[in-house]
UniProtKB/TrEMBL annotation, chains A, B:
<dbReference type="InterPro" id="IPR000843">
    <property type="entry name" value="HTH_LacI"/>
</dbReference>
<feature type="domain" description="HTH lacI-type">
    <location>
        <begin position="4"/>
        <end position="60"/>
    </location>
</feature>
<dbReference type="InterPro" id="IPR046335">
    <property type="entry name" value="LacI/GalR-like_sensor"/>
</dbReference>
<keyword id="KW-0238">DNA-binding</keyword>
<dbReference type="Pfam" id="PF00356">
    <property type="entry name" value="LacI"/>
</dbReference>
<keyword id="KW-0805">Transcription regulation</keyword>
<dbReference type="GO" id="GO:0003700">
    <property type="term" value="F:DNA-binding transcription factor activity"/>
</dbReference>
<keyword id="KW-0804">Transcription</keyword>
<dbReference type="InterPro" id="IPR010982">
    <property type="entry name" value="Lambda_DNA-bd_dom_sf"/>
</dbReference>
<dbReference type="InterPro" id="IPR028082">
    <property type="entry name" value="Peripla_BP_I"/>
</dbReference>
<protein>
    <submittedName>
        <fullName>LacI family transcriptional regulator</fullName>
    </submittedName>
</protein>
<dbReference type="GO" id="GO:0000976">
    <property type="term" value="F:transcription cis-regulatory region binding"/>
</dbReference>
<dbReference type="Pfam" id="PF13377">
    <property type="entry name" value="Peripla_BP_3"/>
</dbReference>
Length: 325, 325
DNA sequence: CTGAAAGCGCTTACAG
DNA sequence: CTGAAAGCGCTTACAG
């Protein structure tokens, strides 16, 4: 079963490959009779012709693909939504988004060379070597970052997340805070920054630094942490995310502590389970749509060679107050 | 900034492009002096050469990419893990996995033609037209399905999920069951099948059919549903998944019903939040690793033109008993 | 042991 | 208005 090529269409419709190409690509600046156009179109349809992207890519040196490289951390609901939206936004520009779960399984270089993408979006920092190589190949490289970074097209300021948590708790009158970190080592980069935000806010308000505890996603680990906090006089805990916060809730329950009276808890992400817990979880919500739109805009700007739009992290984050604080 | 080609490497190392290709691809059946090999390798390194995948694809008609097409439903933790594992497994075969969040944004045909993948894995059913076109192009098409389907390489039997739930509840002595369906319309295909499983098990045991309620992921909706069930004499609820089950838990709490004494609840997925809820959630867990391995095996078999291995859905599912039942 | 040449399928100056 | 030809970068029979 040989592949149908433009030569086949040309033969079938009695014109040259040039004409086929002109007609099928609606090339500007050529005039071709409506009759010929129709013949070519019909032939293409009849034969089920569709151009070889490999040949096109070779010829033009570019494709219509945008490669998204995911980092080595678990994909949560926020990133999932971002990818969704990004796919939709870029589709309007005839671009297809391809996601690589880049758990470092294969060298990144082989991947992007194999794909010949129009642009690469990294939800993680690329090695300088990879980034340089891609830029040399003329591929715009866009990366998001965990905090403000002048090279990033978009940054969710992770320190700001922690800061918002601490601010919310301090405003409610708590003076001794705890921090519940994730056990998952792949989240360390995020965790450090969020914790730094909590620390900074505490320092700024003249409060003692937060009492840090690592909390596994099980009741026993959380119970131990809660005991430590209670002993240390902690009255409110900022958790790495909602899952960890739910563990803290479970730990408090196991210790017979009332939330928020004995211990207040705030998470991050606004997951569904946090709305349904007892008590419902106060949390820092991230607006995935705003993030996706920012990234999409940056990609499009890079392709059009426009100046990079300003990242607008401003209203991505907001505190959703529920009954756990 | 021109691209470095094999011609550059040839010039730099004083040999022909043929020799460059032989050396760099370790082509079998040619003998090239160790000295020459070394010169070529050095030159390639020095120049930062890496072959154009587009040219290779054009030449050979194939790439090293496996395209995974995701369906139009939200990606949960199970699918995320499956993709992770699949990426890892296929990396061992020098294949890169590319995931498309195929929310139908662009026609599938454009995508696979642009990628020229070695194989396509669909976590959803393809249209017959697309599937045929890919097969005609010599691309193995593997699809998973929601239930047993002879054409699928892998099926998580969704009816079996519901059946396991009902079985567990009936074994515990419940005779009047409720079913909590998801409000998210994109999950309808799954929901129908799981519900069918519950229905079948009830019928088989001579029990009344389950009382069906749609439950939003908020307390109000769940409370309404719980009232209805209570009125109908329902003592146990099988929920579409753990999130819905957590909503039912919240609804029972709001109505002052004790779980499991007044109302037992079982979910699906074994998410973290279900281990941390009050009470912890009994659930049907799916083994993502087994799923991923099955799919990977099927992909590899298809590429090697081996007969398709038997799907082995047997031990993918298991009931994890916690205190909500 | 190594090189000149063809060809994968496309697009686009260039020439009629 | 349409066609012959070059060339994108690679691999691989084929010829030395």
């Amino acid at each position: 079963m040989a592949r149908v090529t433009s030569a086949d269409v040309a033969r079938e419709s009695g014109v040259s490959r040039t004409t086929v190409s002109y007609v099928l690509n609606d090339t500007a600046g050529v005039t071709i009779s409506a009759d010929t156009r129709q013949r070519v179109r019909d032939a293409a349809d009849r034969l089920g012709y569709s151009p070889s992207a490999a040949a096109r890519a070779l010829r033009s040196g570019r494709s219509d693909l945008v490669l998204c490289v995911l980092p080595n951390w678990p994909v949560g609901p926020v990133l999932d939504t971002v990818l969704d939206e990004l796919t939709r936004e870029l589709a309007e520009r005839q671009l297809s988004v391809l996601v690589h779960h880049g758990r470092g399984a294969r060298p990144l270089a082989e991947l992007w060379r194999a794909v010949t993408p129009r642009a690469v979006v990294g939800f993680t920092e690329f090695g300088a070597q990879d980034a340089d190589a891609m830029r040399r190949a003329g591929i715009p490289v866009l990366s998001t970052s965990l905090d403000d970074d002048p090279r990033a097209v978009f940054a969710v300021p992770q320190t700001r997340v922690g800061q918002l948590q601490a601010e919310h708790l301090a405003d409610a009158g708590h003076v001794r805070l705890g921090w519940a970190g994730p056990a998952e080592p792949r989240l360390a980069d995020f965790a450090e920054r969020r914790l730094a935000g909590v620390r900074a806010e505490c320092a700024w308000r003249g409060m003692a630094p937060p009492v840090v505890q690592e909390v596994d996603l099980d009741v026993r680990s959380a119970t131990d942490a809660v005991r430590t906090w209670h002993t240390a006089g902690v009255t409110a805990v900022a958790a790495y995310n909602d899952e960890v916060a739910l563990a803290v809730l479970a730990g408090a329950r196991a210790r017979g502590l009332a939330v928020p009276d004995d211990l207040a808890v705030i998470g991050v992400d606004d997951v569904h389970a946090g709305r349904l817990s007892d008590p419902p979880l106060t949390t820092v919500a991230q607006d995935a749509r705003v993030q996706a739109r920012s990234i999409a805009t940056a990609v499009v700007a890079a392709l059009d060679d426009l100046p990079r739009p300003d990242p607008e992290p401003g209203d991505v984050l907001r505190v959703v107050v529920r009954r756990s604080t």
